[in-house]
Amino acid sequence: MSHNVSGRPPAVVRGGRISSGDAALQRKLNAEAPRIPHLFRRISELFAPHKYSLILTVVLVLAGAALSVVPPLLTQRTFDDGLFPPGGHPNLPRLAELVGLMIAVYVVSALLGVWQTYVTSTVGNAVMGSLRVRLFSHLQSMELSFFTRTKTGVIQSRLQNDVGGVANVLANTVSGVVGNVVTVIAAFVAMLALNPQLTLIAVLLMPLLVVAQRRVGQVRARIATRTQESLSDMTAITQESLSVSGILLSKSFNRQRDEIGKYSAENRNLVGLQIKQAMSGQYFFALVSIFLSSIPAIVYLVAGWLLSGGSVNITAGTIVAFTTVQARLLFPLIAIMRVALDLQTSGALFARIFEYLDLRPAIVDAPDAAPLPVDTSRLGEVEFERVSFRYPDARGEERATLDDVSFTIEPGQFAAFVGPSGAGKTTVSYLIPRFYEASAGSVRFAGRDVREIDHESLVSHIGIVSQETYLFHATIAENLRYAKADATQEELEAAARAANIHETIVSFPDGYDTVVGERGYRLSGGEKQRIAIARVLLKDPEVLVLDEATSALDTISERAVQQALDTAAHGRTTIAIAHRLSTIVGADVIYVVDHGRIIEHGSHAELLIAGGAYARLYAEQAAEPSATGQL
What we know:
Elements: E1 13-14, E2 17-18, H1 23-32, H2 39-47, H3 51-68, H4 70-83, H5 92-140, H6 144-149, H7 152-194, H8 196-242, H9 244-252, H10 256-309, H11 316-327, H12 330-337, H13 339-357, E3 382-389, E4 402-409, E5 414-418, H14 425-431, E6 440-445, E7 448-449, H15 455-460, E8 462-466, H16 476-480, H17 489-498, H18 502-507, H19 525-539, E9 543-547, H20 555-569, E10 573-577, E11 589-594, E12 597-602, H21 604-610, H22 613-623
Parallel strand pairs: 5-10, 5-11, 8-9, 9-10
Antiparallel strand pairs: 1-2, 3-4, 3-6, 6-7, 11-12
C-alpha cells in the first residue's frame, strides 16, 4: 500500500460536482490517489446502514425525472385542446383542467426535490461525519513517529478537504447520475413521440455544442491549474507570515513591507488568472445562449417547411412542447459526460481516506496487556535492561540512538541524564511512556515490561514537562483541566500554588479565565512553564519526566520554575533530562550519556571526584560567562 501523501487541496467542488474548469487538475489528483484493494466494496459498506435512504433517493430521483417531461406534454394539450381547439374558440373548462394539472405537477416536483435534497444531504453528511470522527480517532492512536514525519497540513487536508469532498460529491452523484440519465431518456422519448423529424434536427445539432464545451473546458482547466497553484502559494504566504512566529520575525527584522509586497504580487497574479478563467468561459456561455436560442428558431423554420409541404400535420402545441422538451435535454446530456470524472473523484477521495485508515499504529496494546495495580510497592520504579533504539526513519548506516543502555531508578529517586546534544537523552524520556518502542532490550515500569501494560494505564502514572510547553488557545483554567477534566477550582488553585504561579494568575484581570492566546503567546516563557508544571501536578503522577524544562529560560524565570519543579518532584520518582547542570546537582544519581551509551553514573560529588566526562562538562559550564551565579 502506498503511503505517499500529497498535501495539495482537491479541485474546487461546486454544487456537489467538479466544475469544468477544474477537470484537468482533478484528474491529476485522482491519478495520484493511492490504490486501495476492494475500494468500492468498502465504500458500499459505509453506506450499508443507509440503504433504505439510498433506495428512497433513487425512487425520488426517478419520480422527479419522469415528472420533468410531463409539463411539456401538458403544454401541447393546453395549446391544442384548451387555447386553440378545432372549433376555434378556447375551451375554458379543458384549459382550467390542464393548467391546474400542470401547476400540480410543478408543486409535486418541487416537493420531491426538497425531499430528495433532504435525504441525500442527510446520508452524505452522516457518512462524512462518521468518517471524519473515525479518521480523527484513528489518527489519535498513531504513534509519535507518524506525526514527526508527516506534515500537519497533509493530515488536515485528509480531515477537511477529502472527507468534506465525500459529502459534496457523493451526496449528488447518485441523484445526478440517475436523474440525468432518466431525464435524457424521457426527454428523447417525448421528443420522438411529439415529432420524429424535429427530433432528428435537434439531435444532429447537439454534438456541436458538446464539442465546444469540451474544448472550452480544456482551456479553463489549464487556467484553473495555475489558479490552484497561485492559491496554494497565497495560503503558504498567509500561514507563514500571519502566524505568531512569522509576525514576530517580520517585525523584528522590519520586513513587513517586503511581506506585503510578496503577498500583493501573488495576489495580482491570482486576480489576473481568475479574470482569465472567468472570461474563458464567457464565450462558451455565449455560444450556449446562441445555441439554445437558435434551436427553437430552427425548429420553427423546419416546422414551417414541413407544414408548407403538406406532408406532415404539426400543431402549434406540438411545436411549443417540442422546444420546451429540447431545452431541458442539453445540460443533463453534458452532465452525463462528466459522470465518469465524478465517480472517479469520489473514489479517489475515499482512497486517500482509506489510506490513512489502513495505517496500523506501530505501538498497540498486547492482547494480554493489563492495567497496573495501584497498590504495588514498585509503582514509580523505572528500569532499562540492555535497551537499544533506532528511530523508524533512520538510514541503515546511521548509528543507533541508544545502544545497550541499562539502569534502574528506584521509586521516589531523583535521576538526571546529561550529555551533549544528540546523545540520546530525550529518547530515554520517549521510551518510558512507550511513545516509541525499544528496538531491543526491555523497558520496565513498576517491575513489568511496558509492552505488557495497558498503555492508558502506563501513561496515567507518568507526567511530562518538556522544554517546548504547549498551551491551547483557551483560558488558564481550561488548560489546567486538560490534566483532570473534573478538577474543582480549589484543586486548580492548589496546583497553581505548588507550581509558584497562583499569585501571577490572580493578578491578571480575568484571573483563571484569562485566555492565554495561540500556544500561550500572551504569557512569558516562565509563566507558561509553571502553568505546565501546575497541569502535571493536577495529574499527580508517580513518575515525573522533566525534559530540558528550564533550558530556554532566563535566570530569574529559571529560579521560579526550578522552585516549582522542586515542589513537583517531592515524593515522586523524577527523571530530569538536563542541559544546565545547575538544575541537577542535587540528584540522587546522574547518568552521563554519549553517543547513545551511558558512559558513567553516580552522584554529583562522586562524578566530580572521578574526573571524567561529567567533571569536564561541569568545568566548561562553570567557565561560561552565562553560568555565573548558576553553578
